[in-house]
């Protein structure tokens, strides 16, 4: 190529470089591709996150504390509400119980008052009955004393009649098998019979089952008893010990702890060595009959 041609090429290349240079400088920035934009955004966000990290942590903690406070507040409100409801129920129950207790107390007090009145009325009735019993007992005792006096008078009269009869006949000795002790005659049986049989046999002998006038008479008989037990004329009548002729004993001579009514059937009396013992009337014993002999 000639020199003109080379110059022309050089001029074209220069022109091209100038053109490209001017064109490049004059054109605006072209938009980046999407991937490049994403990477740029990510890089920018990471930079912002790293820059604002302490603020976010503090904000999260604050939010957490607020939430916890709200939860505690809700819990406290629920507990308070529940406690208030329970307290109200308890007050209602206590009020109801108080009313019930008061009602029970009133009923109990009324019942006690009624019971006291009933007891007082019963006591009054019992006192009246006891007074009536006491009056009856006194009356019976007076009648018994009167009967005893009459019987004693009869006994004295009988003795006087017997005395007058014997005076006309002179001295009278005891029949055979009888023992004269003092002014009386006594029959000591050898056979053993029941109390009723002994009483009947003495009557058939025109005598009576032994009735002791006093302790001296009993002491006079003891030596003749030879330590054996004998029926005497004492018997229990309506829970009172009475001689079979109705006289009340002027003295007693019970064994220790007697009478004891063992078995609930001991209504008659035996005498042994001057001591008395209540015993079943159906038991068979020897007996003593008493009659009056003057000589």
Automatic annotation (TrEMBL):
<dbReference type="InterPro" id="IPR001304">
    <property type="entry name" value="C-type_lectin-like"/>
</dbReference>
<feature type="transmembrane region" description="Helical">
    <location>
        <begin position="56"/>
        <end position="83"/>
    </location>
</feature>
<keyword id="KW-0175">Coiled coil</keyword>
<keyword id="KW-1015">Disulfide bond</keyword>
<keyword id="KW-1133">Transmembrane helix</keyword>
<feature type="domain" description="C-type lectin">
    <location>
        <begin position="181"/>
        <end position="290"/>
    </location>
</feature>
<feature type="coiled-coil region">
    <location>
        <begin position="119"/>
        <end position="167"/>
    </location>
</feature>
<dbReference type="InterPro" id="IPR018378">
    <property type="entry name" value="C-type_lectin_CS"/>
</dbReference>
<dbReference type="Pfam" id="PF00059">
    <property type="entry name" value="Lectin_C"/>
</dbReference>
<keyword id="KW-0472">Membrane</keyword>
<dbReference type="InterPro" id="IPR050111">
    <property type="entry name" value="C-type_lectin/snaclec_domain"/>
</dbReference>
<protein>
    <recommendedName>
        <fullName>C-type lectin domain-containing protein</fullName>
    </recommendedName>
</protein>
<dbReference type="InterPro" id="IPR016186">
    <property type="entry name" value="C-type_lectin-like/link_sf"/>
</dbReference>
<keyword id="KW-0812">Transmembrane</keyword>
<dbReference type="InterPro" id="IPR016187">
    <property type="entry name" value="CTDL_fold"/>
</dbReference>
């Amino acid at each position: 190529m000639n020199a003109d041609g080379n110059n022309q090429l050089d001029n074209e290349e220069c022109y091209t470089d100038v053109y490209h240079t001017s064109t490049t400088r004059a054109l605006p920035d072209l938009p980046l591709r999407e991937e490049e934009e994403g990477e740029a955004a990510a890089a920018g966000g990471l930079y912002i996150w790293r820059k604002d990290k302490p603020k976010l942590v503090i904000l999260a903690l604050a939010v957490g504390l607020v939430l916890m406070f709200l939860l505690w507040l809700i819990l406290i409100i629920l507990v308070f509400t529940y406690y208030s409801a329970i307290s109200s129920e308890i007050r209602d129950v206590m009020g109801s119980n108080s009313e019930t207790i008061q009602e029970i107390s009133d009923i109990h007090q009324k019942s006690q008052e009624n019971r006291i009145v009933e007891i007082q009325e019963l006591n009054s009735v019992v006192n009246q009955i006891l007074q009536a019993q006491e009056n009856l007992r006194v009356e019976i005792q007076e009648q018994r004393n009167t009967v005893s006096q009459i019987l004693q008078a009869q006994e004295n009269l009988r003795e006087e009649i017997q005395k007058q009869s014997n005076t006309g006949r002179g001295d009278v000795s005891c029949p055979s098998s009888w023992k004269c002790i003092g002014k009386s005659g006594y029959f000591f049986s050898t056979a053993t019979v029941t109390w009723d049989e002994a009483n009947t046999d003495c009557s058939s002998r025109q005598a009576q089952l032994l009735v002791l006038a006093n302790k001296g008479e009993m002491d006079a008989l003891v030596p003749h008893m030879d330590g054996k037990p004998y029926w005497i004329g004492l018997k229990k009548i309506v829970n009172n010990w009475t001689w079979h002729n109705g006289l009340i004993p002027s003295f007693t001579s019970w064994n220790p702890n007697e009478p004891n009514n063992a078995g609930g059937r001991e209504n008659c009396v035996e005498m042994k060595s001057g001591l008395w013992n209540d015993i079943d009337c159906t038991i068979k014993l020897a007996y003593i009959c008493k009659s009056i002999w003057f000589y």
